[in-house]
Amino acid sequence: MNHLKFIDGHGSFLLKQPENTSYLYFPLASETGLKSAVTPNLGGDAKINQEIFLLEPVSSENLHNNRSTRNFWFTKDGIGAYSAVGASAEQESVKFTSMQDEHELTAGFMWQTLKRTSVAYQLSSTVTSFIPRDDNVEIMHITVQNLSETPQEITAYAAVPIYGRSADNIRDHRSVTSMLHCIDTTENGVFVCPTMSFDEKGHRPNKQIYYVMGCTGKGSKPTDFYPTVESFLGEGGTFTHPGAVYKQYAGTSAFSHTAGKEAMGAFRFEPVLLARGESADYIVLLGTEDNKEAIFKLFEKYNSAEKVRQALQDTKTYWQNQIAVHFHTGEHKFDCWMKWVCFQPFLRRLFGCSFLPHHDYGRGGRGWRDLWQDCLSLLLMEPENVGHMIAMNFGGVRIDGTNATIIGDGNGNFLADRNGITRVWMDHALWPLMTTKLYIDQTGDFEILNRQIPYFKDSQIMRGTEADHLWKPEQGNRQRTVEDTVYTGSILEHLLIQQLTAFYEVGNHNIYRLRDADWNDALDMASEHGESVAFTCAYAGNLLELASLIRLLDGHSTTHTADLLEEITLLLQNNTEIFDNINQKHKILSDYSARCRHNISGRRISLSLSVLAVDLIQKANWLMEHLRAQEWIDIDSERGWFNSYYDNHGNAVEGLYKDQIRMMLTGQVFAVMSGVAEEEHIRKITLSADRYLYRKEIGGYRLNTDFHELKFDMGRMFGFAYGEKENGAVFSHMTVMYANALYRRGFVHEGWKALKTLADTALDFDTSHIYPGIPEYFRSDGRGMYQYLTGAASWYMLTMITEVFGVRGEAGDLLLYPKLLSCQFDADGAASITIPFAGKNLTVLYQNSNNKDFGDYIIDSASCDGTELEVNEDSFVILPRNMLTALSDTAHRIIINLL
Asked: Which residue of 17, 189, 479, 778 has the fewest CB atoms within a 10 Å radius of its CB?
């Protein structure tokens, strides 16, 4: 039975007996660096970055293996022990029996509350965990209540193991690095300051202090401290049966010192006598700072129940207000779920692609794709802040069209790979244009194309095939001219170089080379002869999009020209005979890259914008015809699809192979989205995808059929069990992009089927076993995996807003063209969306009183705050940007009547 239910309009939810479901964890974070994961028994970890872990780093399997959780204990009348988080040997022994504690979890954006009731101990407790948005401190607010008819004397113990070092030390010198710990008790807690940190990078003095502090809700101090794991557990004790609690022996006093051992943030409070129904509050603060004064200041800020309750409310309000997009459809659960989908891009911004239990790879930060795809959601919620971010991101583009892959903190901070590893993902040039196009449509700021930005420079040249031995790190990471000045070029120039260099880097089938991988990082074993048909389709669409942007710029230009780097003329070939000639393409790319090996001329030439647009259109049209003629697979009169890849032996990956159907979703997504697929193609693709890839019970469309082969000539994905991750799982990101592509091409029912199945599976807790939100993928049994940090959330938002509700920018104006189905309206025939646009907060209400489907209704009338709006003859409404910006108030209501 599905016990998860939403309890308010902000997406907050309740789940009973959450500890009976494995692998659950919840993210908590501040805007200033602290990142935590908490489980239903307060397992998980907390950290600032790879080097600063407050609690021991965990992966998903540690969630049920580790017992070293955050804990809070009570002894009653001097006997027994009760864990407020359920992490005692006694409570675990009665799990799944009638003696199990009643337990429910409620949670919302950046907060979690556990409520536990013990019949055996006649106690009820709540533990609320959260991180204030602007402080690096995780707060536990514990309340215990006496349920007995008679008074009970209870003694409380806080118990938080302090790891206090780099995540690398979990296996690298774990014991040795504990010998660095200097541990001090204060009046209210335990401080741990390792003397140094060391690894292959050298020995470095340490100033970081890890702490656990606590008080009663009224500010009373602990009486005893157990500052090491050994002192808390006692000889033979465990974290679920600690000697300090069960034997109730005395600890050390405040202002004691010890060193060289595993640290423990554990302390005991004065016993309290609770009358029937009476309760007591306790506060535990855990965090890390680089000086004691900051810690004491934080303690003063949160050292009472009243202060903590106010901080919790402020935290809730802040994060709720960050979600600027609100949906109202005919399904309340879906609308609440969308709150979490809209929240996930914030989590990705804070956590990067690491630092949650399933995301146990990398060392934090984001990748190149993340920079651009995370902007999609920001453009829909806070577009005014994105232009600078986009401009800075272009600083990661190299002059040869590749880009930096090591991304530092802040915007526009790109680093040379310290290990000298050369990786070229062939899809990387795709995303900047997509994001820039959306930015211009949402804001009307086409002048961003003229903004001057430097290029990234390191030792990688010739599109990653050679090293520039003249470059030295001390020269900095900026491309220089022969005169040794930093060169800057327009964003338009950056985009042109990215798209044009990719056009010439083709394999034996005149398809863009796969190189080290494309969007699917697990296609990483076909670098010599692999080709990506899927992303060749995507790039063809990009060429047309860039041409449209250039024409937009031309329409607002006084000179109708662009000043571009002189070397770029080598790439502006419009002879279709060259397009057919693979060797000639290679020579053009090689000549251009050779001209840019170390320094560039810095000279610019003036080129006609209209001529540039025509050049790109010619290349796009040639590509599309080439793809249609060469890559389409016809199975029969009803089924067919595009081949997506060539393997490292130069063989097409898809089709009929030894009486076995091989089909991949990725090639279909970008063929449809780009316009390569014509309507008849799309009809066959959807029928084929429904037959070979769709599995409703596990989330919808699988990424591929089972190839029954390891395929070492393609990538590591085929080494995964079928149905796991990139090998045949329902991969949310690509499924959402499939839906987006179908909506763009008018296949609305098919698109909604893809979106709705993902949502339904995520919301079916008995199948997905995850908290609300969209996971990276659903595995073969439907369990949601790698939750929270997926780019699928941004694309789901984008699709719901711009396609389903049809609220999107077009060169800065607002265009309204809904593609809602009858099932998406409420009982009164209404559906609405609230969204910021042009500095205004707009609520768009669609009224469908006749309960018609998309394709059957037209827009009959429209109004804004009661003022009638013009309806275009093609049944859409445009609100010019100057009209919106001229409106005096910030909140406005647009009503669209459908007939």
From this structure: 17
